[in-house]
Amino acid sequence: MSTALITGASAGLGRALARALAGQGWRLVIDARSRGGLERVADDLGAITDVTAIAGDVTDPWHRDRLVAAVDEHGGRLDLLVNNASTLGPSPLKSLALLSTEDLGAILATNVEAPHALTQRLLPALARSRGVLLNISSDAAVEHYEGWGGYAASKAALDHLSLTVAAENPGLTAYAVDPGDMRTAMHQLAFPGEDIGDRPEPETVVPALLALLARRPKSGRYRASEFAPEAQSIATGTAVTA
Fold first, then answer.
1. What is the spatial distance between Cα 128 and Cα 122, in angstroms, rounded to a whole number?
2. What does 119-160 look like in DSSP terms, one character per residue?
3. Residue 241 lies in a domain
4. Catalytically active residues, by annotation
5. What is the pTM of this model?
6. Can you tell me the distance from the alpha carbon of 20 to that of 120, in angstroms, rounded to the nearest whole number?
7. Residue 242 belongs to a domain
8. How many domains does the chain divide into?
């Protein structure tokens, strides 16, 4: 049985991807800061697959120890690590001129340092299975939006770390993936008081991620929209020739 570890799995894209992988028979290790939300996901998915849910903050070394221990309890097998947990920073968004050093440090701690630390700990397990590292990025990593500077810098750094891991570890595959705008709680924080109902639900992005994992192109930075044909085939059950 293939095993995936997904951070930030109590809501949004993390939850949607966990549900999809569970439906395909993957064993899951999931985490989130929200204990209640995480337990609801675990209860839901536990009926169809083996789920280990560990509530905590990925910036906490002790919490990362527990995640690594959970992988070890499954024989040390890890086929997919998804660094999805992320923070936007202060809401409303602040310009770089107003973003404090402390706020920037907190963003980097969650979006860069924690994924790096967790990946570092789990590299041996990923290497043994010739697995996949999937880091959730953003278009903000390559574009410049007013107020998004701290978050954007963190995602640009995450992109660089992702591809350097791939260069240093040819036995595994690493992706930084921009999922596009989604209707999530974090995206709502970027637009407080505004209606973001026109953004697609996270579930609509999952077929593209599954297509990426199925096709497994070379390591790199990708947009989820690049896998639209394969995603459609997954949704309809038809074959697509790459």
1. 10
2. HHHHHHHHHHHT-EEEEE--GGGTS--TT-HHHHHHHHHHHH
3. no
4. 151
5. 0.93
6. 26
7. no
8. 1
